[in-house]
Fold:
Amino acid sequence: MKGTAMVDKNTPGLGRRQFLTAIGATGVALPGRAASARRLGKVAITLDPAVASPPVAWALERLSAALGSKGFSVSTGGSPAGAARVIAVQHVAALGPESVSIAARGRQTVVRSGGARGLSYGLIELAERVAEGSDPLAALTPRAPITEEPAAGVRSILRAFCSDIEDKPWYYDKAYWSGYLDLLAASRFNRLQLAFGFQYDFPSGVTEDYFHFPYPYLVTVPGYDVQVVPIEPGERERNLEMLQFASSEAARRGLDFQLGIWTHAYQWTESPRARHHITGLTPSNHARYCRDALALLLQACPDITGLSMRVHGESGVPEGSYDFWRTVFEAITACPRPIEIDMHAKGINDIMIDMAAKTGKPVKVSPKYSAEHQSLGYHQADIREMEIPRADRMETGTFAVSNGDRRFTRYGYADLIREDRKYDILFRRWPGTQRHLMNGDPAHAAAYGRTAAFCGAAGLEICEPLTFKGRNGSGHPGGRCAYLNAALDPGPNDWAKFAYAYRLWGRALYAPDAEPESARRYLAAQFGPAAPALEVAMAHVSRILLLLTSAHLSTASNRQSWFENFTNLPIVPGSEPAVYRDTPRPWCAATVSALDPQLFSSIADYVGELIGGVRDPRYTPAEVAAWMESWSGEAEKALADAIARRRGPATMEFRRWEEDIRIQVGLGRFFAGRFRAAMLYEIFLRTGDPDAGYQAVERYRAARAAWAAMAERARTVYVADIGYGEPAVSRGHWIDRLPMIDQDLAAMAVAVGNRPGDKPLPDPVVRAAVAAVTSSRPRWQARCGHSPATAFVPGAELALELDTQAPVRGAELWYRHVNHGERWRSLAMSRDGSRFRAAIPREYTASPYPLQYYFVLHGGEAAPVFHPAFDAELSNQPYFAVWKRTGGRLPA
Structure:
């Protein structure tokens, strides 16, 4: 093919000579080959003139190095004659810019795409196959053609600078950046946000404030005498140099580089231990300085493609300060390249959105995927009652918007998914639930990949593992992974511990329905015959905390919680201080709401239904406990299988996997037992039944024993203070949590022993309730068929039909706009034999919002059930969403 050099956004074309020089190719073998390369043979690479670009050059370097390590020479630009294999790299304009097509044709392997990123993905796929396989020529010859398109347009990682103690080493390390960016690009992420100002929610109680207000750490702005005190001579210049390096190296690999400026406060209050302070700023010059500093940064770093900003009160700028943001945005307007504005969704309103849109630059609004945590891989069907605006919750001042009538924007997509929006939606998965331990489940990675583009959204940004490490002044020297045994530490490249997760998540965001071959190749190369069992073990334990967040959210705040190292919330009200206040009163396990209260019931609600004899279809705490028990057991069996299949002594990598799996098995057993104990104790409180009380104590003792055994082993693995924040709930060790568990357990034993059983209800009711909360029986399955609606006509009813088989005796349709500011509605469905019918009314479809719906089925004496129900892995979307429109008009 003939053509001019292909140019992608942020991946400028290279001239032919420049391109060949970049990859070390002049028609002869590329450097890096093994000594026996000529004896083993040659691989020739033929290049269309149109493919010359930095990402392709980078990927060719990786492929050449992989082949060289296996004893093959690599040539480009010369004759392919005599080559054992020819790789033809072709730009095909009709293909998508991130598409991947790889096919074997005789002795030729053809890599095609419509863009530089897609071609680099294809070449990296071949490089991985060569590096991690035993037969390089077979690795270059796929048995079947590979054709893939990205499911999520934006596949982003957020990396935060939170601690000068823990983060300066990697920030200044060019080798670290190179390896890290290699991993991201190879995993098919296409964006990186480097976030400054992420280490505090509020500008008070500040200690480690490095980069918190980032501008004066990076640039000197003419006309302003703004300084960081203290700062070493040359440090500002070094900081800027590293930002330039990181952004340019990201662009070289085809990654968009997003600079996160999450804090615009320049004064710290109640912060006597702050290590730095900012001089030279006043309210009168603050906005102008930020504008001019930002303009300098964008000029100095031409590879910055966008800006992510927190624009609500936690930015340090009171909500409603529109003149401030209008002034800052002038720097973006003046920038000659298309700088994306990405605004955090909390407290966002039309004024801020319109202001950003008037810059003429692309605008994204980024809602949280599941509060400040990780959850099951679907967007919550509803928000907690605590997030719904109410007159008695309205605030004024700094948080007048986000804690006022826009309160429902705090922890979900709110009312942002509108047909008439002037912005894209980018979901952000926060790091509150799981931060430190390895995790990775192909089923849930695929679930996130399928829902990243929910209702036409742009994609998903994942806060990386170790996000918030060292936050709020909790940083320690000695490595971010916090291993007690230095031999377990992966060294300066802490991202290497999570290489499996990066591969799994990035590839799943790209192609969620593809087999996770890249991640499995990594496991096979690391662990040999033990790899399949380790994959199973890690998959099962990785679901435990995702389910906990969805079903039992003690608090939506990541700063006030760390479910991976859970600080106990009492089962017995008042038995210990309640550390979680962001949850319904009284502050105890029974009253905790689910993140998604539409689909999961609380302990108190479930027990009340059991005793009252009326059930709803929501998933119960008993089912949650059963899932956790099952996953813990399956993981433990798979781990034992992996140990049996392991060749030779355990490597450090194997030990890291084993220890993190064991900790999560312990978490699963603890939470399952705690759920059952809390349900039994609630029965005891409501009925006085002594047997329920005694069983509650026994279950709690077993849960406590599981935690203690896990914590004692973890004491030999991780340091005593693993810091993710200043509050006690965000730092410390698993062993630290035992005293609160013991205190609560002792209070339960006293309460059960001191209260006589009055048994106000008949024994059969109580016995049935006890049996329900201690059993692991699955709910009944309603076999039914439904063809999901793929589009709707605004202003016309949306007719829906469900085919069922016995024993279904009735059905309801539940529906809602895709808007967390609204509540669900329901209709009884009419029946015609095995078919049920209902329609979403025409006046309801006349809306700028998409539609979502599900069915509730009734049958016999059992509780009603949902359709669609969760699958075995809980990795599907448990409702239908319809966002495509055919005709109709938006309401005036």
Observations:
- Residues 652-687 form the longest helix (36 residues).
